[in-house]
Amino acid sequence: MSAAFDELRFGRENALDLRSSLPTGAEAAARAEAFLRERQMAGAGEVLVVTGRGNQSEGGVPVVRPAVARVLKAMRRTGVVSNWQEHTPGAFVVTPAPISALFEAPRRHRDASAEAPADPEALAGLDGATRRVLRDLAIRALDALGAPAGDSFVQDEMVRQFSLLGRSIPPGRDQERRLRAAAAVALDELDDVV
User: Which end of the chain is more exposed for a tag (fewer CB within 10 A), N or C?
Assistant: First the structure.
């Protein structure tokens, strides 16, 4: 009966069931990270991640649950997850962070993938509307930091914003549209702060 209430509360799109497929810890971590990044971009309020308790694990030692817990901790540091709590002994309720939290998360030396290339030509293949919203977002982010908004700073910030948002956009036909929408949401979130 609690499964029915969970579906009513979260809906199918906001629930990830890792228990049914019996993934390895690494597979569960990768699926949870992709799911949470996608749900953050979709603006989900709360999501459910079902890990199971680990009763089916070899030797009864849980694998999936601790792997997902590590992902949740890492994703909170990087601005993807706002918070989480245990829903049941085999599930977490997770609140994705606002998209603007991606820009506020401190850079970590170990996370080299978070560093954007310094080449503004990397954005040349994007549609003009996408580049415009990235430019607006970059100018607004620099302004919020009190940083100079010279052209080279703006271009570097555009590439950084693209890198941060792009990692959370799942591949697909409408990937650029989803990137543009996420950038517009982040811009609105930054405007709401001030």
Answer: N
